[in-house]
Amino acid sequence: MDSSSRPRRRRRARRPRRRALFSLALAFLTVGCGTVAGTMYMTSWAHPRAEPVSSSASRAADGEETVESATEAAVDRDALLAAAMGSVGVADGAEVSVAVFDPDSGEAASYGGGVFDTASIVKVDILAALLLRAQDAGRTLTAEEKTYAAAMIENSDNDSTSALWRAIGTADGLDAANERFGLTRTAGGDGPLWGLTQTTATDQIALLRQVFGTADTELGEASRAYVRELMERIAAGQRWGVSAAADGAAWALKNGWLRRSTTGLWVINSIGRVTAGGHDYLVAALSRGSATQEEGIALTEAAARAAVSVFTGNAADDAAGAQSAS
């Protein structure tokens, strides 16, 4: 109760008691109390729990360098992917590179290097470049462009691709768009040879991040949604590749295949988004040197499964399987 509410005639008689109470309050302050506007309150440590003092805390007080025991080392996703790829059979003379991105955590992993011919996966890049040009001009795609785009992505139609390749300005137009998309190691094919565009698995992840909106995107939402819609409607005979890592039909993809006339060997590539274990992953698997198309498809599918296993928790099993097989 505040002293201003007490009768005046009792002030003198109660003054010694008030001094005693004031002294008691001061003493109480030394063990964890404070006052605000004449009202006593308890601090957060007024009723401390007895906690043991760790030896590391004692050393810290003495000025010694300490390491936080609760800090865990970052997971080396690249190492996990390399271990998982140990169980993937790669024929003599064949090469494979794979990359994966987890939008939930922002983590990525990649395996293999080098630059690969795109074959028909470049068709996603061509469509993205076309949409970017349309955005810059403040327009939407024409009916003819949409017809070409649907045939190019869903059915991998080459004539439609060539028409849109010219519409974007061939390699120069593609390269200009890719500079804005953040693709640093992709170069458009010479002349009409869009299928010989050169790229890397990590660059394809950068492109997919533009399409699926997991980066600072140059494409607007309507453009991104349009590309995704077409990638979810791939013709039945072309539903292979990274989709092998998905749960059921939860995927959006584009594949590329090309038999090189100089060697007779196959370039087999696959890019897209897959859903596994309730999470989405962006995956790019590039390969070359397979003796048959079927071998190349099997290689990209195995690489895609290994990449996704890095995040779904199966990488350790894959690594164990690779050790037992060696």
Automatic annotation (TrEMBL):
Q: Which GO terms describe its molecular function?
A: beta-lactamase activity
Which parts of the sequence belong to the Beta-lactamase class A catalytic domain? 148-286
Which InterPro entries does this UniProt record tie to the protein? Beta-lactam/transpept-like, Beta-lactam_cat, Beta-lactam_class-A
Report the superkingdom from the record. Answer: Bacteria
Q: Do you know which Gene3D superfamilies this protein is assigned to?
A: DD-peptidase/beta-lactamase superfamily (3.40.710.10)
Q: Which SUPFAM superfamilies match?
A: beta-lactamase/transpeptidase-like
Query: One of this protein's GO BP terms?
Result: beta-lactam antibiotic catabolic process
Record-linked PANTHER family: BETA-LACTAMASE (PTHR35333), BETA-LACTAMASE-TYPE TRANSPEPTIDASE FOLD CONTAINING PROTEIN (PTHR35333:SF3)
What is the official name of this protein in its record?
A: Beta-lactamase class A catalytic domain-containing protein
